[in-house]
Amino acid sequence: MAKNRLIHRPRRLRKNPAIRRMVRENHLRCEDLILPLFIVPGKNIKKPVISMPGVDQLSIDKAIEVASQAEKLGLGGIILFGIPDSKDATGSDARDSDGIVQKAIREIKTALPDLFVIADTCFCEYTDHGHCGPIKGNSVDNDATLTLLGEAAVAQAQAGVDMVAPSGMMDGMIEAIRRALDEAGYEEIPILSYAVKYSSAYYGPFREAAENTPSFGDRRAYQMDSANRLEALREAALDLEQGADMLMVKPGLAFMDIVRDLKNNYDLPLAVYNVSGEYAMVKAAANQGWIDEKGVVLETLTGFKRAGADLILTYHALDAARWI
Ligand code: PBG
Ligand code: ZN
To answer: Considering 87, 250, 283, 305, which one is annotated as catalytic?
Structure first.
């Protein structure tokens, strides 16, 4: 019996591993991955974050060990979040030259000068009310926060950070930080803007890790409404105008369309944050034996690349680098 004569048979290009590899469109590389680390004061501390199996709060000495693995595995870099001993209304520790993150930057860069170290630049881990800047009335005082953000970024630069990453969604934050860095002589330090950061239930586990739960209200008056798409383009345009060197979309999985939108509209390097809740769901299901962790993680991270991300901030970074 004659076979169907099909001119187009896409399966020809899927026939075996060799041809699949040859025509593969997107590739996950170790240098695409950025590992977030949570730094606490003290020595020899490795305190598990219960909702994020495999993630710990680390004292600086322990963080250096993990950072060294990150370097050996060829990750793009690490991003630091600090949890200070004492918090206050304005988050002073984030601006202090001896603040927890400044110390961590200094010691990590001394131990591992070639590892690329990014600092999250925000106040929610440092304020006693857990918001991303000082409070006026019942919300964050935008313009007062801008001045403080400039000071925090300069403190991070003085400590030797390679790039700052403001995450507070304050209007004008990129301009304020650019100006402060330039005035202090740090015109060569790039800014990775969390330009498009949505208010999200996926940040739940991070709040345990970073101890930054707001003591009242929520962040909806500064983080974006997850129903909005056009607003993401406006946010990105503003940050670009203000001098952002790279843009970020956050969270990742529920916002893949936004990653693609930004990639199609702007030519800056683009990062995506594969956030704590996304990590926790994978870990929980894998722990039950309900999914294949390696398969799911690599598929997800490759999906971010396909969506248009150049860089991926992910708690899976070390595992993924071993699997690639
Ligand atoms: C705070 C900040 C948050 C995350 C990164 N920086 C949480 C928040 O806005 O409440 C979330 C990261 C994650 O969930 O993994 N500026
Ligand atoms: Zn914040």
So the answer is: 250
CB contact set of 250 (below 8 Å; sequence gap of 6+):
167, 194, 196, 197, 198, 200, 272, 273, 275
Q: Which pLDDT score is estimated for 1?
A: 58
Minimal-distance CA residue to ligand 1 atom 6: 167
Domains along the chain with CATH numbers: 28-323 (3.20.20.70)
pTM for this model (two decimals)? 0.97
121-132 tens-digit pLDDT? 999 999 999 999
- Ligand 1, atom 2, lies closest to the CA of 167
Of residues 62, 87, 197, 305, which has the active-site annotation?
Answer: 197
Q: Would you state the pLDDT for residue 28?
A: 98
* Distance separating alpha carbons of residues 246 and 141, to the nearest angstrom: 25
Residue 294 annotated in active site: no
**Amino acid (one-letter) located at 74:** G
pLDDT mean over 95-103: 98
Structure tokens at 110: 């001394």
